[in-house]
């Protein structure tokens, strides 16, 4: 069996440890790896315990083709995979980034990002390089890096699905510290779903001891939750603007930010004078982009953190609660590609809710620090007469509890609403869909009917039936999941130490072995249908 791994700066040591543990269990395994940053493959090249085939599918050699050849390649890949490259491009946070969605520091000039031939050439180059790698190594299993942000995410997934290669990526379940092996970029887990339906068929809740305990623990923890948004703002040094001194403090932070960018530009200029190979045109573009992003971040903070921003709905006011999401982010870009434009999504909802409802929005706390909304974002939404913002420090759990319906595209608010018995509507697939405790609709023409149906459907589910379904789901999840130590390090929130990465690799291997033994995919017959166009 052959396993191909995608490496990133933060996962290389984890994946090396993973391979060592898998090799001990399955001595006949063969490994290959690649990365968009070829330097991350060095520890694999230097490994004395294992041998790896190293690939560079992103080499510039794959860009030396004519536009007509690139178009022909893309047409054949679309036929092969059943995908459209334009949806892939829309999900990409580099060449596909659209500035009307927000201000993200992609260093690819906007003129290039709007150049049809340039974009086509970049996509074709990646398809070409990945195709050559697949045909040369002939993998049975592909293990991607988590939280990647380019078109390669969907090219690789499409290549795997159409070729018969198993696409296996771990994902945290958003329930306790439980990770599971999923089978696509949407992080869906068919094995959990199958076990859930089997338990529902048996209908023996008394045998689900672990599921019942986890359900009770979650409900207990949930009732004791603090205000995540307040905690987050304090952790990252954000503060509510109550007076002129707070305003001055925020402005001074902005000035320090500008000075830091200016310092980096000055250093680059001096290095250029000293004869170093530096593209000053590129450095000035990066400087301009950083200034724009810092300025927009300052303006967004000044608007959303002001004590006068937003209000809670009046007592008795019915509302649809829509917690806003980060853009860009893996879940937003790749799992909710068609709903990336928040303004458009809110406009569609505002035309579809019942006449006595309003829409209550709440900014995601990380949206203020890391992801920069487009100019006039808050003003655009506030002008819609049936849309209101809640203050950023509002307890999101209370907004969920008192809502008529929660609309989610990504995030955990939908799961929290299901636990509290609140109707949930989503345009995309979620891990909780198998329980049929929510409603899905991606057709804006039927949103009004779907909102009403989601509410009526939820009324027919008793508290005992809801508890039973959630318990069965948790039992199924527990039998298909595994813990990872130091999960914040594993999820890239913090850098870790060598011993942490090694341990996480061993734990991840236990999860993969559990999955292999259950699904028997390690006994693959090796028959694959790799994309052959332009393969060498």
On the 0 to 100 scale, the average pLDDT is: 89
The dominant shape is: globular
Which strand-content bin applies to the residues? Answer: 5-15%
CATH architecture of the largest domain: 3-Layer(aba) Sandwich
Strand order of the largest sheet: 12-10-9-13-14-15
The CATH topology of the largest domain turns out to be Rossmann fold
The number of helical runs is 22
Quantity of strands, as a count = 16
Unreliable stretches: 224-228
Structural class: alpha/beta
Q: How many distinct domains?
A: 3
CATH class of the largest domain equals Alpha Beta
Helix content: 40-55%
| Biggest β-sheet description | 6 strands, parallel
Describe the structure in your own words:
This protein is an alpha/beta fold. It has three domains: about 190 residues, Rossmann fold (3-Layer(aba) Sandwich), CATH 3.40.50; about 60 residues; about 160 residues, Glycogen Phosphorylase B (Rossmann fold). The chain is about 50% helix and about 10% strand. Helix 1 links the parallel strand 1 and strand 2. The two termini are about 20 Å apart. About 0% of the residues have low confidence.
């Amino acid at each position: 069996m052959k396993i191909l791994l995608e490496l990133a700066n933060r996962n290389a040591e984890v994946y090396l440890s993973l391979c060592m543990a898998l090799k001990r269990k399955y001595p006949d395994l063969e490994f290959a790896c690649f990365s968009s940053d070829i330097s991350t493959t060095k520890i694999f090249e230097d490994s004395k315990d294992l041998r790896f085939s190293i690939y560079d599918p992103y080499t510039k050699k794959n860009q030396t083709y004519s536009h007509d050849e690139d178009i022909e390649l893309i047409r054949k890949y679309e036929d092969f995979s059943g995908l459209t490259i334009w949806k892939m491009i829309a999900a990409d946070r580099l060449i596909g980034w659209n500035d009307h969605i927000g201000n993200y520091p992609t260093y690819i000039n906007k003129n290039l990002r709007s150049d049809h031939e340039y974009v086509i050439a970049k996509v074709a180059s990646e398809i070409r390089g990945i195709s050559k790698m697949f045909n040369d190594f002939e993998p049975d299993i592909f293990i991607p890096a988590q939280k990647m942000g380019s078109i390669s995410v969907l090219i690789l997934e499409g290549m795997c699905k159409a070729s018969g290669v198993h696409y296996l990526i771990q994902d945290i379940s958003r329930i306790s510290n439980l990770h599971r092996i999923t089978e696509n970029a949407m992080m869906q887990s068919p094995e959990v779903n199958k076990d859930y339906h089997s338990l529902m068929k048996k209908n023996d809740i008394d045998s689900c001891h672990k599921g019942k305990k986890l359900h009770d623990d979650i409900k207990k923890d949930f009732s004791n939750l603090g205000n995540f948004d307040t905690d987050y703002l304090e952790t990252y040094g954000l503060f509510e603007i109550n007076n002129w001194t707070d305003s001055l403090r925020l402005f001074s932070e902005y000035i320090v930010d500008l000075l830091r960018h200016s310092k980096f530009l000055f250093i680059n200029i001096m290095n250029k004078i000293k004869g170093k190979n530096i593209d000053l045109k590129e450095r000035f573009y990066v400087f301009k982009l950083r200034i724009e992003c810092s300025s927009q971040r300052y303006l967004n903070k000044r608007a959303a953190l002001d004590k006068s921003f937003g209000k809670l709905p009046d007592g008795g006011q019915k509302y649809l609660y829509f917690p806003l999401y980060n853009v860009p982010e893996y879940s937003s870009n790749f799992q909710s590609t068609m709903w990336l434009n928040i303004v458009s999504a809110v406009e569609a909802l505002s035309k579809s809710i019942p006449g006595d409802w309003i829409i209550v929005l709440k900014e995601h706390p990380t949206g203020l620090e890391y992801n920069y909304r487009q100019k006039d974002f808050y003003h655009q939404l506030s002008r819609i007469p049936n849309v209101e913002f809640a203050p950023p420090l509002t307890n999101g759990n209370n907004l969920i509890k008192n809502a008529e319906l929660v609309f989610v595209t990504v995030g955990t608010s939908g799961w929290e609403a299901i636990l509290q018995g609140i109707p949930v509507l989503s345009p995309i697939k979620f891990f909780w869909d198998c329980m049929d405790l929510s409603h899905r609709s991606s057709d804006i023409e039927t949103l009004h009917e779907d909102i009403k149906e989601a509410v009526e459907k939820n009324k027919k589910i008793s508290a005992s039936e809801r508890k039973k379904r959630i318990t069965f789901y948790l039992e199924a999840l527990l039998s298909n999941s595994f813990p990872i130590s130091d999960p914040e390090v594993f999820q890239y929130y913090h850098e870790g130490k060598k011993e942490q990465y090694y341990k996480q690799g061993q734990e991840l291997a236990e999860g993969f072995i559990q999955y292999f033994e259950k699904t028997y995919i390690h006994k693959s017959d090796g028959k694959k249908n790799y994309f052959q166009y332009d393969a060498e």
